[in-house]
Hints:
The structure holds two protein chains of two kinds. Helices cover 36% and strands 30% of the residues of chain A. Chain A is of the alpha/beta class. Chain A has a domain at 3-90 and 165-247: 3-Layer(aba) Sandwich (Rossmann fold), CATH 3.40.50. By secondary structure, chain B is of the alpha/beta class. In chain B, strands 5, 6, 8, 9, 11, 12, 14, 16, 17, 19, 21 and 23 form a twelve-stranded mixed β-sheet that branches. In chain B, strands 4-3-7-10-13-15-18-20-22-24 form a ten-stranded mixed β-sheet. A two-stranded antiparallel sheet of chain B has the order 1-2. The radius of gyration of chain B is 21 Å and the shape is globular. The relative contact order of chain B is 0.09. The structure holds adenosine-5'-triphosphate and magnesium ion. Residues 42-43, 87, 170-171 of chain A line the site of magnesium ion (MG).
Amino acid sequence: MKTLSIRNLHASIGEKPILRGLNLDIPQGEVHAIMGKNGSGKSTLAKVMAGHPDYTVTEGDVLLNGQSILGMEPDVRARLGLFLAFQYPMEIPGVTIANFIRAAVQARLPEGEELEATEYYAKLYAKMDELSIPRAFTSRSVNEGFSGGEKKRCEILQMAMLQPSYAVLDETDSGLDIDALKVVSSGVNALRGPEVGMLVITHYQRLLDYIVPDKVHVMGEGEIVLSGDKDLALKLEAEGYDWVTAKK
Amino acid sequence: MNTETKPDIDIDRSVGDFRYDVDYAFDAGVGLTEKTIDYICDVKGDPDWVRKFRKDGYKKFLEKPMPTHWASKDLENIVFENIRYYLSQGQAPKRSWDEVPEDVKRTFERLGIPEQERKFLAGVEAQFDSEAAYSNIKEAVGKQGVIFVGSTEGLQKHPEIFKKWFGKVIPSGDNKFSALNSAVFSGGSFIYIPPGVKVSHPLQAYFRINAQNFGQFERTLIIADEGAEVTYMEGCTAPKFETATLHSAVVELVALKGAKIQYITVQNWSANVFNLVTKRGLAHEDAEIKWIDCNIGSRLTMKYPGVVMKGRRARGEVISIALAGDGQHQDTGAKMVHAADETTSNIISKSISLGTGRSTYRGMVHIPKHLKKCKNNTECDALLINANSRTDTYPAITVRGQGHSVQHEASVSQINAEQIFYMQQRGLSEAAAMSLAVNGFVNDLVQQFPMEYSVELKRLIDLEMEGSVG
Ligand SMILES: Nc1ncnc2c1ncn2[C@@H]1O[C@H](COP(=O)(O)OP(=O)(O)OP(=O)(O)O)[C@@H](O)[C@H]1O
Ligand SMILES: [Mg+2]
């Protein structure tokens, strides 16, 4: 089965180890959630998988459908099908959303093939409608002056347009109002399918009512300390994290 | 050089970096003396007043020191004795591309000039080294009384208007390089737009340096009579030579009452060209002069387009984009001289420095004491790509008197590694991400270029970025 596998992953920033032997398998077709205290290393895991240059992997591997991606540039990993919805999306002044996504879609086409503009816009507008993003956003600069919720919605729009085979959503629910949460969740659910594996990082069980996970993992100090089904999220919400660490 | 390989060359990548051999009928030789000037006058059949003007310019050129007390020391590396000051195949520019000699024509074809002319231009002049090889305007435009010819033809056939303004906006002695240009000028455009005529499509000149060790000294004079409007665009390229090449133009604009002149430059000089250009416009009452200036390439560019707002409510504007690649220095800016009440000037400058590239902004805004209700807005933003890239800003704003409004904003930013990572995560290569960020930085200014040029500009930026990463 096609899987995103994280094997005994150790990663540091400078001299400081953050991931300490993390193991996780996300098969296509499944949605996994990761919860865990602030600073436990959730975003670090997402960024290390995506190839952020600040982190050094000291041990272990990340395999995308059996192929190690650790030596690859971030853009190569992305074109292989890995998508990361950022916890803090970056602003890119002067680059419109329409042009940015277009460049990203174009980058996935074979050399010499030009993206068909009318088809592209038709798809873009359809996805924007699904996510209730007003048309005017196409000509706004990427994330510049966006509210927190608008940024998250725009991340999901990019995901919908790029149709990754593995998506990591880092706290995409943070900063969303109730209506936006529903819209974003339905956007995510629309992408769910046998060809897609997802890792959803969140602090709130509420999100998992909308995006129902196949598995829930708890992260503590750079490793997965507990895994279970969706009920684990309810228990965490009710009881906090201390019992997990105590148990360990 | 094998000249039969045209289809094999990838024109998109090489831009202007190619060269075909050409036989020159007229060659003033190497170095500059009074004899060189006489040679040029004789070849061109200059009237006596022009010969005198040239000799006077030469004298001033010798007297003036190099401005290295404030400008780059790199100027000292120009060896005037090694430069060829005049090279041409002959005099009269052709009115039809069919008559242009084959060896010159193929250069312009490769640069796409005849094609652009058909598509969207009202007239074209194509200069090859010292002289225009081709010059023509659309019949309909000519019928409106618009004159668009080379400087030599301008001074010979239209002396009454030419003499009235030539050297008046920029006196020979303005600086060492305007003096040099006055001594040896050749080529460039003379344009006159009659009162009330609005030329709807741009007029374009293309300046091509083809010879090594060559100095190109074109001289352009544009006069828009009362209420007239015109847009002029110039493009420039040269192949890459081992030795330094000099381009030193003088451009004078005169906008009479209520006239509008827009002057657009997209230069893409190769990395060993010294580009030292003096550009200034004189705006009369209610007139508007706008310089849109894009400087890519060259070894050292020094260029500060200016507007003297001499009539009431005149407006001056400079929009400039400079990209200093590795080892290059773009020393650019603007000069705004307010010389009447209620005059308005606007300067927006954006520069990008790559690798060891350096960009310098120098802005001069002058509003004297006796004037009322003048306005200036200056914005200059610099973007640094690498840790060793450099930018400097030298604004000189003198505002005397009361009731003026002056605004000045400057910023320096760096492309942030997190932005690049974000874009790479979406599948863009590092170079593509850099290009996109740089294009984003200048996007609002690029919008002001005509469509055909903004596409070209984007392509040039992409090419520069491609070479600078990885
Ligand atoms: N550049 C850095 N320099 C030093 N420490 C860092 C750096 N980046 C992250 N860390 C540390 O790594 C640890 C893990 O951070 P990470 O952002 O992965 O946590 P998280 O689980 O995503 O937290 P949150 O729930 O608050 O988003 C934290 O202690 C953080 O301070
Ligand atoms: Mg985090």
